[in-house]
Specification:
The protein is of the alpha/beta class. It has eleven helices and ten strands. The structure holds adenosine-5'-triphosphate. InterPro entries: AAA+_ATPase, ABC_transporter-like_ATP-bd, ABC_transporter-like_CS, P-loop_NTPase.
Length: about 260
């Protein structure tokens, strides 16, 4: 579980995060949604330690990481898996080498053990051995995303972060990637936090959702609650799609009938 208390981040005179408090549960896919510029990436980077917050607390299973020493922060990095925006694979490394990299950084395994573990997770994300020796430029965007996910889970992380994991993917591949992240969350019992502005992802895997607007937590709930939320900003976000507008009308009608 990751608990965030009154988190603020200021860049010079701009306050980007204005006091966010929330809880991300273990074994669940927790989503952060919001319009472009609402502060999602800055928030996620504060959680992963890439940005130092101005004030507030971030408790990883009770440990306040904002007070960590350099050594404690390094140790925590071994417990975290991250799927970066755009996959961020190393172009000059093969698929297998990319996945093995965190093990070289954070484990005491020998080369054979590292290769075995890397092959195991690559197989888990449904990549076949022919792809293990290829370079990122030789495989599709969807496959690159699977490699990025394999690299994120190779260390058996307790915490899994993904920043816009579907960016640049077609809707079908996006759905497969969402499902994969959800399955891995259950299998590894990770506290998973995903930044997205994809409504399909929200409806697929939004077990808990927080909605940010201008650095403020405007709304929180789950995928069932979001369709009938009465927050204006959430409605704007969700109902940019006509299909969801229709769905909302049906759901509100059902709700009204239930009350009669
Ligand atoms: N290093 C920085 N210095 C100054 N301002 C920054 C910095 N990083 C981000 N910001 C500002 O913080 C705000 C929030 O940015 P952020 O990238 O978190 O938004 P976002 O919700 O992730 O948007 P998107 O969905 O487009 O990625 C933006 O106005 C951005 O310009």
């Amino acid at each position: 579980m990751i608990e965030v208390k009154n988190l603020k981040k200021q860049f010079e005179d701009i306050e980007v995060l204005k006091g966010i408090s929330t809880v991300f549960e273990t074994g669940k896919t927790n989503l952060i949604i919001g319009q472009s510029g609402s502060g999602k990436t800055v928030f996620l980077k504060c959680l992963t330690g890439l940005i130092t917050p101005t004030s507030g607390e971030i408790l990883f299973d009770g440990r306040d990481t904002t007070k960590f020493s350099y050594e404690e922060r390094q140790a925590l990095r071994g417990e975290i898996g991250t799927v970066f925006q755009g996959s961020a694979l190393f172009d000059s490394m093969t698929v297998l080498e990319n996945v093995r990299f965190p093990l070289e950084m954070f484990s005491n395994l020998n080369m054979k053990e590292m290769n075995d573990r890397s092959e195991e997770v690559l197989t888990r994300v449904n990549l076949t051995p022919e792809s293990f020796k290829k370079f990122p430029s030789e495989i599709s965007g969807g496959m690159q995303k699977r490699v990025a996910i394999a690299r994120a889970i190779v260390n058996k992380p307790k915490y899994l972060f993904a920043d816009e994991p579907n960016s640049g993917l077609d809707p079908k591949t996006s759905m497969v990637i969402d499902q994969l992240l959800h399955e891995l969350t259950v299998e590894y019992n990770t506290t998973t936090i995903i930044n997205t502005h994809d409504m399909n992802s929200v409806m697929e895997i939004g077990e808990t959702i927080i909605f940010l607007k201008n650095g403020i937590l405007e709304w929180s709930g789950d995928k069932n609650e979001i369709l009938t939320a009465d927050n204006e900003a959430v409605i704007d976000f969700v109902y940019s799609s006509k299909l969801f507008t229709k769905l909302r009308e049906v759901l509100l009608e059902e709700k009204a009938n239930l009350k009669k």
